[in-house]
Amino acid sequence: MKSNSATPSLANILIVDDVPDNLRVLSQVLLQQGYRVRKATNGQFALNSAQLMPPDLILLDVMMPELDGYEACRFLKADERTRDIPIIFITARDDIESKLMGFEVGGLDYITKPFDVQEVVVRVATQLKVSRLQKELQLQKEQLEQKNQQLEQEISDRITAQTELQNLNQELETKVEQRTQELRLRNQELISLQKKLEISLKKEQSLSEMKSQLITTISHEFRTPLTVIMTSNELIKYKIEKQQTQNLDRHLNRVNESVKRIEQILNSAIVLAQAESNLINFEPQILNLDLFTQQILEDWKSLENQSHPIKLSIKGNHPEIFKADPNFLKQILINLLTNAIRYSPEGGTINLELIYQPTEVIFKIRDRGIGIPESELDQVFDAFYRGSNADSISGTPGAGLGLTVVKRLVKLHQGTITLESILNQGTIVTLSLPVSEVKS
């Protein structure tokens, strides 16, 4: 059996795809890595090419007319000339069923579209290295079999050397087992490294997408309050110049409300960024929740209009020790109350229950607002989520960050938060925090 080291300068790779752009991109990436590249635009052409001159590795597109990638793979694995060629599938699908089908017909790995250059390079290099190690192992096995045959022949000719030959055979088998174990460990290391790389790439991609969306959303959300500030500023300037002082308070209030909205968006963005980067400063303290909650409502009344009365009820006995970060707990409650008011009809009462239990403290915030569609309940804590019915309310809807921030802050307290809602009937948010001491 021939051994091909399949180093980048020698490895021959066959790319099979019916889309010319895909062939061009993959060819360019692999040529830059020093590989020799051949191309095929359909499954039958790929079979003929591989049988005529077997490559070291095949990149095989799944979705092709006439002969798709799975069927082509079956033919390749059934042919003795091509059965040992490693095959990496190219697909736009990332579901489990597609992957299982690929592995069942003989594929070793997947590359998903759109292509990530680094991923393509790593996966190709990994499979070539594994293939090379397998070929080396097979060569050693054939060499061992040949030596064993020679030993058996010598044993039959010279019985007196039987013990010595058996010892030699045992020694050779031990070395092969050691080598096999080394290869197995190396292969496991490669698989582990590949998995870590995939996780790292996915996490980096997720963070990048979230940062990009965060910047876009903040930029969009700033436009309305900034426009209000600029317009009100011009009106105030004009009225002062004309010595017309009537309605100045109304314009100043609009400026203040816009500044508060910008501050709220910035605070939410900062908390999210710190939480995602594990840089958040979490400082739990012993709190008297009765006084803490009542003070929040008193502050709220002094800052907000009274169009939505908040009714507080307290049940049970306050635990001997309860710890939480006061700033974050205040932000959690204010965000939840703000949502309840924003999506409730004018004059609607907001019910806030504080319930003490032996192992946990529960806050329940109940409104009788527009509610959330049932099909969207599993999305409410996602960043930038806004209900499809949010436009039905008067005023400006939120930026879609409030509940995401709440979820992160509740997790810091080792608590849980759930949401129940019925469309056009209202929403109940249940916040549960452990009584046991929270680790800082």
From TrEMBL:
EC number(s) given by UniProt: 2.7.13.3
Chain coiled-coil ranges: 123-189
Keywords carried by this UniProt record: Coiled coil, Hydrolase, Kinase, Phosphoprotein, Transferase, Two-component regulatory system
Domain Histidine kinase: 217-437
Major enzyme class: transferase
Keyword Phosphoprotein recorded: yes
Residues in Response regulatory domain copies: 12-128
Name of this protein: histidine kinase
Organism, scientific name: Planktothrix pseudagardhii
